[in-house]
From TrEMBL:
This is valine--tRNA ligase. InterPro entries: Anticodon_Ia_Val, M/V/L/I-tRNA-synth_anticd-bd, tRNAsynth_Ia_anticodon-bd, Val-tRNA_synth_C_sf, Valyl-tRNA_ligase. Gene3D superfamilies: Isoleucyl-tRNA Synthetase, Domain 1, Valyl-tRNA synthetase, C-terminal domain. One of its GO terms (molecular function) is valine-tRNA ligase activity. PANTHER family: VALINE--TRNA LIGASE, VALYL-TRNA SYNTHETASES. GO terms for biological process: valyl-tRNA aminoacylation. Residues 6-153 form the Methionyl/Valyl/Leucyl/Isoleucyl-tRNA synthetase anticodon-binding domain. Keywords: Aminoacyl-tRNA synthetase, ATP-binding, Coiled coil, Ligase, Nucleotide-binding, Protein biosynthesis. It is an enzyme of class 6 (ligase). It comes from the Eukaryota. It comes from Brassica cretica (Mustard).
Amino acid sequence: MPFSCKWILSVLNKAVTKTVDSLNAFELADAGNTVYSWWQYQFCDVFIEAIKPCFSGENLDRTHAQDTLWVCLETGLRLLHPFMPFVTEELWQRLPSPKGCEREASIMICEYPSPIEEWTDEKVEAEMEMVMATVKTIRRLRAAESMERQRNEKLHAFALCGNITTLEIMQSHELEIRTLASLSSFEVILKGEDRASQAGSAVVETVNENLKVYLKVDGAAIDPEAEREKMRKKIEEIQNQKEKLEKSMGVSWYEEKVPAHIKEENARKLEKLLQEVDLFQES
């Protein structure tokens, strides 16, 4: 099964678990946000784009992608049904039935989704997190003002990896990165091979402590001072976010009145912001 299919089933399973738990606790806003986030940011933004290469020919990957797409649509509509009953009913009725299988006459009388333990794959999710961090970094570089005229062009990028583990992950998911970042090619290099200096005209950004991404922009005019100024502004923006979060966490009633899951989320956000500041300063 393609990597993207394993990933979407894993995050769908987590969305199902969180939605069911939230509904059982009568936390309707949390349940609705969970369903919305899965549909918008994981299914539509990532999965549908990532599986496009699977449909380039008749092969096993195409079959897996089609089957996974159907499962996601059917399960996702049932998950969304309590929040949007009429729209989901209409869409569900238009969804083809699996060959040789019968289903209920209406989505209203279908069983609500429940978690399927076999779908969860933490390793796949961790790898996709690195893939998406790389893709978002490349997109930021493409959106740079100095590259305005190349925004719609497919460019070449390469990743400079600090260790073998990162190298293997990047090599394994070259197709997903190239597809999601709209690249003509994507090369993976291990630190020490010293091929970054041969990149020609390129812009660079740090993804994490073991990964840097270079985007080649041969023929484009790169202003080093402008790039440094953008980096300074980015660091300042992150610093402001960090200070704002620290201020909200420092109020006298924070520990007593703020729910535990919000405190955990804020702690994770703060840690991530601190890491981002360190990484950008190193760059």
